[in-house]
Amino acid sequence: MKLLKWFSVMVVFMIFVLSIGIYILVSERNFDSESKALFTEKHPLPPNDGQNTSSLRAKYFGTSTILFNDGAQSILIDGFFSRPSLSTILFRDFEPLPTSDIDAILSDAGISDLQTVAVVHSHHDHAMDSTCIANSQGAILAGSPSTMNISCKGEVVKEQFVVDFRDSTETSMTQVFGNYTLTFIKSKHSPTEGAAAELLGIGQPIHSLITPPLGIRAYAEGQSYSILIEHDKGNVLVHASAGFLPDVLLSELQDKRIDWLFLGVANIKEDYVNDYFAHTVAPARAKYIVPVHWDDFTRSSSETLYPARAIFGDFSLEIELLANWLQKSEQQGRINKTHLVLMNMGDEVSISASQ
Ligand SMILES: [Zn+2]
């Protein structure tokens, strides 16, 4: 009898501890005053940026959704606006927002003549909305065969540029889209293991055409890329997923000038960042670095982003690791002076060629 009582108490205690753990992992987070100061004081936008409408501008929408606009033509990296909630992506099927809603967001953002929607890999937070956006805007969808297999609620992609390194020894593919020359560079997804890797189809393709609404398992990774954007006004590297292939960026970028680097920092850890930054930040040698994919992509807002829940990362730690590495590397002469810039929802910066 005594043993049964003791056992019952232990079970209740373990359920209690487990519940607390799950609550901490999945509960919503907000910025504290110290995190807010990172945006306003430590890593603010460069002064007067976004004011010059004749420049090449980059507007940020969270995760790795970035709209580049030179006033005449635009390109969009990873059009992801639907941002379904955590409970939806864990327990339900989901689909893109109505195309008219996304078109309205892009119209408000001042989009002009969209040339391409370029997608870094096929997970829902990068690719799910992209076919709908490309078709609606008359743009070319650029990405892996898996990305091409995500239909817009049944409508297949109308114009496509397929990037596929599976049967190739090459590590890059270049294509001109209007005023923008894009080079897709073979890369790797951020480190994801065990059940999460299984759930997210890491290294797996989307084998055939899929039609949302679908559960998260349907949106497998496909292949992952960095995207180099070359434009008369300035050059940008978008490295959205926090993985890397050793020395690939070093050999692909060589002496190319990169003015701005948009760098994925989702869930990076202390024991990983030295290698990660050495194979991404160091070869890019960008003057400005914008961390991306630090936000909670399961919360929607037109006004602000929120820091990721513990299950997806640690915003303050990710920014601190990057800032510390940059400072140390500058002191050691491994990289030139770099400006770390934090962008929030709807923030815009001007891209110009560094001296
Ligand atoms: Zn992913």
TrEMBL record:
Signal peptide: none annotated. This is MBL fold metallo-hydrolase. SUPFAM superfamilies: Metallo-hydrolase/oxidoreductase. It comes from the Bacteria. Keywords: Membrane, Transmembrane, Transmembrane helix. The chain crosses the membrane at residues 6-26. InterPro entries: RibonucZ/Hydroxyglut_hydro (IPR036866), UPF0173_UPF0282_UlaG_hydrolase (IPR050114).
